[in-house]
């Protein structure tokens, strides 16, 4: 799938050069260059599942920074092309982490943070993200980690509610609802 949509908004502040910190800009550009991203993303997928709150929050922040770097709005930055390429290659994998996280692979106490990250993707490249979410839900487990059955209509309701949702706070409640079915 080719991610080509764009959003209005500002550039990711982590990528912009502060007036007196050219080294910070160079480091961020290097970090978001394709060779590094192609290695970092698979590692982040594995690390997201360890259940350590601070580590998981850092990984989710990385995913949000990646998508906002790929779609910076009106400003063009050097890292944009590499971030877009990384999303074209790994977008489904990242959304799998987020959706499977809501489905029990990541502790439920992080469901709001998972929702925030998913929302950043929805805001940045909605159509592609919806396709990735649909694919993730098709492969999401049919049972919670504790063995409770999760009905197919629960996953379909999550998708249809997500598809219609235009409010971040409402989306968080949609995500909490799905996570509640898997973490009951």
From TrEMBL:
Q: Check the record and name the Gene3D superfamilies matching this protein.
A: Leucine-rich Repeat Variant
Which top-rank group of organisms is this from?
Eukaryota
Q: Name one GO cellular component term.
A: cytoplasm
- Keyword Isomerase listed? The answer is no
GO aspect biological process, one term: protein import into nucleus
Question: Where does it localize?
Answer: Nucleus
* Keyword annotations from UniProtKB, A to Z: Nucleus, Transport
InterPro entries cross-referenced by the UniProt entry: ARM-like, Importin_beta-like_NTR
Q: What is this protein called?
A: Transportin-3-like
Query: Which organism was this protein described from?
Result: Oopsacas minuta
């Amino acid at each position: 799938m080719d991610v080509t949509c764009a959003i209005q908004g500002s550039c990711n502040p982590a990528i912009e050069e502060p007036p007196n910190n050219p080294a910070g800009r160079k480091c961020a550009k290097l970090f978001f260059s394709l060779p590094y991203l192609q290695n970092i993303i698979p590692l982040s997928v594995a690390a997201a599942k360890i259940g350590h709150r601070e580590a998981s929050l850092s990984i989710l922040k990385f995913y949000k920074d990646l998508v906002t770097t790929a779609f910076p709005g009106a400003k063009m930055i050097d890292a944009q092309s590499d971030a877009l390429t990384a999303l074209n290659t790994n977008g489904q994998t990242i959304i799998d982490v987020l959706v499977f996280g809501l489905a029990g692979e990541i502790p439920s106490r992080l469901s709001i943070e998972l929702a925030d990250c998913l929302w950043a993707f929805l805001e940045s490249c909605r159509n592609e993200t919806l396709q990735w979410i649909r694919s993730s839900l098709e492969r999401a487990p049919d049972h919670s980690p504790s063995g409770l059955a999760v009905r197919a209509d629960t996953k379909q309701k999550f998708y249809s509610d997500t598809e219609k949702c235009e409010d971040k706070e409402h989306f968080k409640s949609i995500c909490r609802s799905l996570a509640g079915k898997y973490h009951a």
